[in-house]
């Protein structure tokens, strides 16, 4: 990427998930001095609360690419610049890893900025994916399968990694606390109480083992005394054939993007029968 941009009056930058600039590269030495004077240097806080409207700040807040040109920037020293920024989401944990920014002088802004930032995001995401372990990939596959099945808010974790998305992030769950609850419950547990009226059904990635990761499908308990009795309702203990059937259903639902009609057709069963199976395995 640097070879392609040399001589184009372009700057590349990376910010962490909190909006702090961590790295910067310039195609020309003169740009480095200009950007330093504009207070756009490593260590600078560029999140919106600290720096107002800017490419990195908007992309970090909205979790999508953002183009800010000239006077659209809040800070006057940045009015001469055009910036396009895009978030980098970790392919395993699904959390914001940071933000990529490509900047040039405002009068030089063109569609190539979008090409450059997309190439950078794709390259970083691929590197993060390659660095993931085989176990983390299995955890991600299981996590996405349950997400596609529409089972509800899903969290997947092992001793070191937690995969969580927005609908579950609002619960404010802590990986270490969840792990302690799982270890206390043991690998044979089918459901655990998480506190604050939350309960989770447990689906180990490898049956009978916690160390390979566990999928938690979270729900809120019913009000009052009904919560405990509902949480205590046992999930049917699955035999080998039932576990195999559950695995196939989850896999097909994932391949069909959660479309139950399409999944039923591929499984060779009616939509009603599929819903019956989903209820049986507590996926609906």
TrEMBL record:
<dbReference type="InterPro" id="IPR029016">
    <property type="entry name" value="GAF-like_dom_sf"/>
</dbReference>
<dbReference type="InterPro" id="IPR002197">
    <property type="entry name" value="HTH_Fis"/>
</dbReference>
<dbReference type="Pfam" id="PF02954">
    <property type="entry name" value="HTH_8"/>
</dbReference>
<dbReference type="GO" id="GO:0043565">
    <property type="term" value="F:sequence-specific DNA binding"/>
</dbReference>
<dbReference type="InterPro" id="IPR009057">
    <property type="entry name" value="Homeodomain-like_sf"/>
</dbReference>
<protein>
    <submittedName>
        <fullName>Transcriptional regulator of acetoin/glycerol metabolism</fullName>
    </submittedName>
</protein>
<feature type="domain" description="DNA binding HTH">
    <location>
        <begin position="241"/>
        <end position="281"/>
    </location>
</feature>
């Amino acid at each position: 990427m640097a070879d392609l941009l040399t001589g184009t009056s372009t700057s590349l930058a990376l910010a962490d998930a909190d909006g702090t600039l961590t790295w910067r590269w310039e195609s020309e030495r003169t740009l480095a001095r200009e950007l330093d004077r504009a207070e756009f240097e490593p260590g600078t806080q560029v999140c919106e609360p600290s720096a107002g409207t800017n490419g990195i700040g908007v992309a970090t807040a909205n979790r999508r690419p953002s183009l800010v040109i000239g006077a659209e920037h809040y800070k006057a020293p940045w009015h001469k610049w055009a910036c396009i920024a895009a978030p980098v989401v970790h392919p395993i944990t699904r959390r914001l890893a940071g933000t990529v920014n490509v900047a040039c002088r405002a009068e030089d802004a063109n569609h190539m900025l979008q090409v450059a930032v997309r190439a950078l995001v794709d390259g970083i995401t691929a590197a993060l994916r390659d660095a993931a372990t085989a176990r983390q990939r299995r955890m991600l596959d299981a996590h996405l399968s349950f997400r596609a099945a529409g089972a509800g808010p899903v969290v997947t974790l092992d001793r070191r990694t937690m995969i969580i998305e927005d609908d579950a992030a609002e619960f404010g769950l802590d990986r270490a606390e969840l792990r302690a609850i799982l270890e206390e419950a043991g690998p044979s547990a089918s459901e655990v109480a998480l506190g604050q009226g939350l309960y989770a059904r447990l689906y180990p990635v490898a049956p009978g083992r916690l160390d390979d990761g566990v999928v938690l499908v979270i729900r809120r308990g019913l009000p009052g005394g009904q919560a405990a009795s509902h949480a205590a309702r046992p999930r049917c203990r699955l035999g080998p054939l039932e576990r195999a059937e559950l695995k196939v259903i989850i896999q097909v639902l994932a391949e069909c993007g959660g479309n139950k009609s399409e999944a039923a057709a591929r499984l060779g069963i009616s939509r009603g029968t599929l819903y019956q199976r989903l209820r049986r395995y507590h996926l609906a």
